[in-house]
Amino acid sequence: MAQQEQWKSKIGFILATAGSAIGLGAIWKFPYVAGTGGGGAFFFLFITFTLVLGMPLLMGEFLIGRKGQTNPIDTYRKLASNPKWGFIGKMGVFTSFILLSFYSVVGGWIILYIVKIVTGGLSVQNDEQYMHLFEDIISNPFSTVIAQFTFMLIAILVVSQGIQKGIEVASKIMMPALLILFIGLVIRSLSLDGAMEGVKFLLVPDFSKLTSESILFALGQSFFTLSLGVSVMVTYASYLPKTQNIPKSAISIILLNTIIALMAGLAIFPGVFAFELEPNAGPVLIFAVLPAVFNHMPFGMVLFLAFLILFLFAALTSAFSMVEIIVASVTKSDATKRKKYTWLTGILIFIVGIPSCLSYGVLSDVKFFNKTVFDLMDFTVSNILMPLGALLIAVFVSRFVSKDVLYSELKQGSNIGNIFFSIWFVLLKYVTPIAIIIVFLDVVGLFKW
Ligand code: PFF
């Protein structure tokens, strides 16, 4: 059997998993789903789901990953001593594949914006024009497909080298830089005229705005931002030495990710209200609002460029994790096959993603269930496959892996006590599956409210 690689340092693992978590989910998706899903009430639910369901699941994925020390498909087989459980890993591979096919489209949008700034094409007269400018950019079939391809190419080149090399070093610089830039951005946003309207919109819950669908979106969003239910965290934890403190790592990642999502919200919504834009503008929201906020700062375009580069980096480190789970599964961690299969995977994902890419332009009228191809892919992955994967993983870990194995694995590298373990176990065994099932049943209309 191929020798499993290991992270070079403790912080390397945190950075890579935080890199997988922090990406388009917190920065691009969170503001727009919060904007369409009810503002403060959505945010409240998102935080609750993150803490009550996301946290135990993340620890669960870390635990079985480190215990298994192999690719995600074999991890499930090994820990349950039954080959049929490998399907959870296979489902994760499939979900990652579809996810990256539309994720790379948005990654391409960031690249296009970077090119626009560098070539001087982003100077407009008034703040509302950014919306139209952006819609123009993403409706061009040629440049968007090329940009999507470029995004995938970078992911292929890095992952084919083995993720440890690139990610650990780069993340140590980029992640703090992203945080610092976000702090500056939030300060600027909060000092815009009318900023408080935006803060209220994001933070003050009005539960009457919630619908069954927005509850599902909040659930999906909390899994999406933490890369849960896909076995990506299982894969990353398989490279983990036994000395790593799992609860502490999980808490750090959740904290970092939530702070970034909160800052994204605080950077965007004051701008939305100050410039009289619509909070429910959808996927275009951040691309229309942020340039306007930066425009109102000294050296605005230079800072916007720096922001976009860091944003692209954040999206790429998430993309690496999606490619990694697929490559780790098909090569069974055999390093000699890595290059070939990374290329194959990357190119296939790019091809499957083309219709999503075109659905903001030439394919905008092609709809299934009243959704464009892009929206359909996103909905299927974020609101069906990821929560379903999370449900299966919660059931698997809490019911099919021996409790003693879990306890002794969790104890390695941490000194958590019995009580913490029991709370974690109950959350995973009962609360997580029941909550996910209730949200699903609610969406299909079982509970009228
Ligand atoms: N967590 C990533 C983000 O928020 O952008 C998205 C993601 C990465 C989801 C990897 C799932 C995954 F397996």
From TrEMBL:
Location of this chain's protein in the cell: Membrane
Protein name (database record): Neurotransmitter:Na+ symporter, NSS family
Keyword annotations of the record: Membrane, Transmembrane, Transmembrane helix, Transport
Broad class of the protein's primary localization: membrane
Gene Ontology cellular component terms for the protein in this record: membrane
Organism: Oceanobacillus limi
One Pfam family cited in the UniProt record for this chain: SNF
Keyword Transmembrane (UniProt): yes
